[in-house]
Design brief:
By secondary structure, the chain is mainly alpha-helical. The protein contains 13 helices and no strands. Helix 2 crosses helix 3, helix 3 packs parallel to helix 8 and helix 3 packs antiparallel against helix 11.
Length: 278
């Protein structure tokens, strides 16, 4: 494995690769760095040893399971497959909010390597998002469980689930870049950003499906990027149909705009990260 250069640690320089290295080799090296960062983060989040896989599964399911029980049995929503409908919102939202929360401390948690190793700092938000997909993957177990509980059969539309997962990951990753910068530049605003992200859930059709909301509110809720993601999951799993075009395009549009704004800013400012950590 090639050594990472340690001279002038405050500069974010690309890792040296052989002159003959092509795009495939470069992409492979980038993936190795992302996986290494994510593995370190997973060890911090979930610990070590044989019980780690169990913790991956139990932590998110415990958090989401309690929430689902509260909504379904305390509020007693009698809508069509109410528990599954709520799971279609809560499960993807788990990846979004946990990615934002993790990203706020992503640079701080990697203080040692940011200060002493030359690697692309722009991969830190990618690694933070990848780390949270571990818990997200465990949360996905809730969806088939709720489908069985409500007697909702699988349809060919389930083949579109990779689209729903990609939408969720894209939005979470796009939010990770500004969240990482906020956590580094103005950490006192971290709690406010997490609260703002949580507020997005409550001003989206998370507790009730969009088709149960009428009037102008129905149209306004489509502006929220989480609405499209929630409705994409519901269309695929509950309605057995392809999601509406707007449900895919709105979240993708937000992800594209956020990436266009913050990825270049992140790449420009990353060389100063080590100085800010001193």
């Amino acid at each position: 494995m090639r050594r990472l250069t340690l001279d002038r640690p405050w500069e974010d320089r690309p890792i040296a690769t052989p002159l003959s290295a092509g795009p495939v080799s470069s992409l492979s090296r980038t993936w190795e760095v992302v996986v290494a960062l994510a593995r370190a983060d997973v060890r911090i989040r979930y610990g070590r040893g044989p019980i780690r896989p169990l913790k991956w599964i139990m932590d998110p399911i415990a958090a989401l399971g309690v929430y689902l029980l509260l909504i379904v049995f305390v509020i007693d929503d009698e809508g069509r497959a109410a528990g599954l409908s709520i799971a279609c919102a809560v499960v993807p939202f788990q990846l979004v909010i946990m990615t934002v929360a993790n990203s706020l401390r992503a640079v701080e948690l990697r203080r040692a390597i940011v200060s002493n190793m030359a690697f692309p700092r722009s991969l830190i938000p990618v690694a933070a998002t990848l780390t949270e997909t571990v818990g997200f993957a465990a949360c996905l177990v809730l969806l088939p469980v709720m489908m069985v509980a409500y007697g909702v059969a699988l349809t060919p539309a389930v083949l579109l689930m990779p689209l729903a997962l990609a939408l969720t990951f894209a939005l979470a990753l796009a939010l990770s870049y500004p969240a990482t910068l906020v956590g580094l530049w103005v950490p006192e605003l971290s709690l406010m950003l997490v609260s703002a992200t949580r507020t997005l859930f409550f001003v989206a059709p998370g507790l009730v499906a969009l088709d149960e909301i009428g009037g102008r509110t129905h149209d306004l809720l489509k502006i929220n990027p989480l609405t499209g993601i929630f409705e994409t999951y519901r269309s695929i799993l509950i309605d057995g149909a392809a999601p509406a075009a707007w449900a895919v395009l709105v979240p993708l549009g937000y992800a594209a705009v956020l990436s266009a704004l913050f990825v270049p800013l992140f790449r420009r400012e990353q060389r100063h990260f080590a100085k800010l950590l001193m």
